[in-house]
Design brief:
The complex is a heterodimer of chains A (115) and B (115). With 115 residues, chain A is mostly beta strands. The mean pLDDT of chain A is 90. In chain A, strands 2, 4, 5, 9, 10 and 11 form a 6-stranded mixed beta sheet that branches. Chain B is mostly beta strands. In chain B, the strands form 2 sheets. In chain B, strands 2, 4, 5, 6, 9, 10 and 11 form a 7-stranded mixed beta sheet that branches. In chain B, strands 1-3-8-7 form a 4-stranded antiparallel beta sheet, with no helix packed on it. The mean pLDDT of chain B is 92. Classes of the chains: A mainly beta (115), B mainly beta (115). The interface between A and B is medium-sized, with 21 and 22 residues.
């Protein structure tokens, strides 16, 4: 089982709708979760991160953690065509508790927002 | 606006040639990561430094790849000799000490084509 798994998509949503992106992780002890956005031909850009103590909202973006089912979601409200990108989920690897962890990235989900 | 910088942005070379990629991490960041991204494999971690010391290079082909940090403002990734299968985008990322120490900020990448 991969440490981080994402549906490759594409996920297509109409403009203005809520886009919901999911990421499952294998290590039940994971404490931090990261979402990156990558536009075609560009580098990954950190959108937000959450710790295992709760969900987080930042503007139109909300990250939610479901510990029991071991998945983390990224919700994008009022989706815009400019949100069309690949969204990468990342988690510190299993057993790697050292300060300043490396991250394991999922393969990413392609989001397409249609106007 | 602090950013990770990488040079060159594009490199086309012939098989067998040496390739050197450079990265300047964000000032004050103490962790540096080298990634390779391809359509087939996604984002793969090649090497990881903290306070200039190599911590993990298990993802890097040892026979042809080498990574170093001559000083806190420069990280290098060398491929010698290069092969067509090395064609990919190579990203450098840096992370801060303290605070959200797992966060990583990516540079623009070096797009390498080996003919």
């Amino acid at each position: 089982q991969k440490e981080v798994e994402q549906n490759s998509g594409p996920l297509s949503v109409p403009e203005g709708a809520i886009a919901s992106l999911n990421c499952t992780y294998s290590d039940r002890g994971s404490q931090s979760f990261f979402w990156y956005r990558q536009y075609s031909g560009k580098s990954p850009e950190l959108i937000m991160f959450i710790y295992s103590n709760g969900d987080k909202e930042d503007g139109r973006f909300t990250a939610q953690l479901n510990k029991a089912s071991q998945y983390v979601s990224l919700l994008i409200r009022d989706s815009q065509p400019s949100d069309s990108a690949t969204y990468l989920c990342a988690v510190p690897p299993r057993g790697y508790m050292e300060y300043g962890n490396k991250l394991v990235f999922g393969a990413g989900t392609i989001l397409r927002v249609k106007s | 606006d602090a950013r990770v910088t990488q040079t060159p942005r594009h490199k086309v070379t012939e098989m067998g040639q040496e390739v050197t990629m450079r990265c300047q991490p964000i000032l004050g960041h103490n962790t540096v990561f080298w990634y390779r991204q391809t359509m087939m494999q996604g984002l793969e971690l090649l090497a990881y430094f903290r306070n200039r010391a190599p911590l993990d290079d298990s993802g890097m082909p040892k026979d042809r790849f080498s990574a170093e940090m001559p000083d806190a403002t420069l990280a290098t990734l060398k491929i010698q000799p290069s092969e067509p299968r090395d064609s990919a985008v190579y990203f450098c990322a840096s992370g801060p000490k303290g605070g959200a120490a797992d966060t990583q900020y990516f540079g623009p990448g070096t797009r390498l084509t080996v003919l």
